Amino acid sequence: MVNKILKLKKEITELSDREEYLYDDEYERLKCLKEEYDAEFPKLSDYDKKVIEEEFSRWYEKYIYFEAVGNIRLPEG
Q1: Exposure class string for 20-30: b at 16+ Cβ within 10 A, else e
Q2: Whose CA is closest to 63, among 75, 73, 55?
Q3: Coil, strand or helix at 76
Q4: What angle separates helix 2-17 from helix 46-70, to the nearest 10 degrees?
């Protein structure tokens, strides 16, 4: 269950970061993922919630780094 919720949170983050560019079907998927996450997360134990937050923090640090590096445009010339 922890892995499922963690995967949901990661996918929600990735889709939310480009929400303004989503197609209708992707936006609906994001909405469904958020609803599923909001329904399942409160059912977890405090320990499981802490594990998810710690794992997500490690993943997010890498995610942000690669998003930033991937969007850097080197000057042409």
Answers
A1: eeeeeeeeeeb
A2: 55
A3: coil
A4: 30
Tell the residue number behind the tokens 């010339």, with chain if given.
77
pTM of the entire predicted model: 0.86
Q: Token pair for residue 48?
A: 């499981």
- Rounded distance between C-alpha atoms, residue 55 and residue 22, angstroms: 26
Which CA distances in Å does 63 have to 20, 23, 42, 70, 77? 19, 22, 25, 10, 30
Contacts 24+ apart (CB under 8 A), 18-25: none
| Each residue's pLDDT tens digit, 16-69 | 999 999 999 999 999 999 999 999 999 999 999 999 999 999 999 999 998 888
